[in-house]
Specification:
heterodimer; A: about 160 residues; mainly alpha; Potassium Channel Kv1.1, Chain A; two-stranded antiparallel sheet; 8 helices; about 60% helix; about 5% strand; elongated; B: about 180 residues; alpha+beta; 3-stranded antiparallel sheet; 6 helices
């Protein structure tokens, strides 16, 4: 890879092209490996595909670009505080639409910070929900027999299957 | 099964991935976690796993203040130490099958109790036990030897989850002190 390259082009799973700076791409191990393996110079037209849809990839790249300066150089406490606030705003998204995609993408791209953030957002979303709401979101079937439900009710008085 | 509008098949993929699911569940409150035991058999197994409980506890400690757990002695007037009401017969403790229970201490919902019995006409002896009123489980505390028993000043429950997942019973006798393992 030529050291003059500052940004690389990647394809989303939908086939759209995205630019990501080299320093931002380093936040992800697989992207970092790609940087080492794939030729990104001008005379090379191979564009790597990332198995993440366009809508999600936009968000992931936004996160990487924001976090890259701190990850690469370290930062003061006030920067860390500012970044935390930014993370909270960043996660104020239409969760139904994109949260789980971000979570899967962060897992796939080995991005610990974003993965933690997405898991926490998912946990915050779930904690106010009833058991049946959880089943609906994750498409889980209630597989307890009536005897097993009765036994659980005895062990945990007040527990609810709804 | 009908999908809830908005949450696509990706939510299903998340729930099927035990690593990801565990990571999310570690971040919900203990109260929600108990509630979610009723979601499915898989969730029940996952949440009931001792390793999951321990990881959850340790995570909560990291997130909260440095010393969130402390053993507290019951200060309710019913249990004050110098009144007759110290020795009570509480119907909820029928399962212990002892006539009169003395509550010595509570620690995160576990109770350290004793009951006295006559050995001879003038000689009393005490048995100590730890019980969990929620699960109705109890275990007898075996004091190491007679010397400890005879010179016993106090017996206490202690719990420091960052050090050990187990509760300890600490005995202090004049001239001797020790920790008795208790894994209720």
């Amino acid at each position: 890879m030529s050291s003059s390259v500052e940004a690389i082009t990647v394809l989303s799973s939908d086939g759209d092209e995205f630019k990501i700076t080299v320093s931002a791409a380093k936040l992800s191990k697989p992207l970092n490996w790609m940087l080492e393996d794939v030729c990104f110079s001008d005379d090379c037209d191979e564009v790597p595909t990332i198995e993440v849809n366009s809508k999600t990839l936009v968000k992931v790249i936004e996160y990487c670009e924001k976090h890259a300066p701190r990850a690469n150089s370290g930062a003061s406490d006030s920067d860390a505080e500012e970044l935390k606030k930014w993370d909270i705003e960043f996660m104020k998204m239409d969760v139904k639409d994109i949260l789980f995609h971000i979570l899967m993408a962060a897992n796939y791209l080995h991005m610990e910070g974003l993965y933690d953030l997405a898991c926490q957002t998912a946990a915050d979303l779930m904690k106010g929900m009833t058991v049946s709401q959880i089943r609906k979101i994750f498409h889980i079937k209630n597989d307890f027999s009536s005897e097993e439900q009765e036994q659980l009710r005895r062990q945990h008085p007040g527990c609810s299957f709804d | 099964m009908q999908r809830v509008a908005g949450y696509g098949p990706v939510a299903e993929t998340v729930a099927r991935n035990i690593d990801i699911l565990s990571k999310i569940l570690l971040r919900v409150t203990a109260k929600s976690l108990l509630k979610f035991k009723c979601v499915s058999k898989q969730w029940l197994t996952l949440i009931s796993d001792p390793q999951c409980c321990r990881s959850h506890t340790l995570r909560q400690i990291l997130m909260l203040s440095p010393t969130p757990f402390s053993s507290t002695t019951i200060t309710d007037p019913l249990f004050t130490s110098n009144s007759v009401s110290l020795v009570v017969c509480v119907p909820y403790f029928d399962y212990l099958n002892v006539p009169r229970v003395t509550f010595l201490q509570s620690c995160n919902g576990l109770l350290l109790c004793s009951f006295g019995f006559l050995v001879t006409n003038n000689d009393h002896s005490f048995r100590y036990f730890v019980c969990n009123p929620t699960t109705k489980q109890f275990t007898v505390v075996n004091l190491p030897d007679r010397e400890v028993r005879d010179r016993l000043i106090t017996l206490n429950l202690a719990f420091e989850p960052s050090r050990s997942p187990h509760y300890r019973v600490i005995s202090i006798s004049s001239g001797i002190s020790g920790v008795i393992d208790d894994k209720l």
